[in-house]
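dude i think i finally got it to work??
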Amino acid sequence: MADPNSMFDSAYNGDFDLIRTIVEKDASTIKTKDSNGRILLHWAAISGNLKLVTYLLEMDSDIEAQDDTDTTPIILASSSGRLEVVKLLIQHKANVNHKTTQGHSALQYAASKGHTDICVSLVDAGADINVTDIRGATPLHRAASKGNTSVVKYLLSSKDKLEINIRDAYGNTPLHLACEEDRQEEAMLLIEHGARTDIQNKDKQTALDLCSKGLLHYIKTKETTTSV
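look at this
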């Protein structure tokens, strides 16, 4: 949350009239940073106030401004589920592949939070569907582990580009994480789209080794039914 009782708090709350009044009195406030290195546009992007974001962009606010974790407005809007703001920032040529200090992109946040429509907009705008963070996790890793079925289905629909068996820094594939978190539907979707069950992670475990007994039985039953 923004600093309470500040203009940043007002931007966070989407108070268009107050922010416009502040900026008109002192245009330099467009570039002013808070204690986390964020400018008004960061907080307006989180608020989802399209009118406020539009105004700040018209006032030449820096669309690629980075806070103290290298997070940009489009990353915050994506994480917060602000679809219309994301679309507007894309129209203004925001970098959809920028990463934070932890290597997280807008697409990774959207996939992790289950914002499917935002994932679609980002990928359509050129977001790397296989982008990795500093731990080697991709959007598919994040969506599969969180149980975000709609996002997993969408990512799998781009299978000509998607690296379904990609391993993170621990050797885990998206299927490993789906199984470890007991994500039944996600695990089966991955398997049906070509996820391998024989890949071992750094602990020499396959995805099936991480399954609960219930999930393992479900997978085996489904595989038997499908093969008949």
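The two ends are 55 Å apart (CA to CA).
im so relieved honestly
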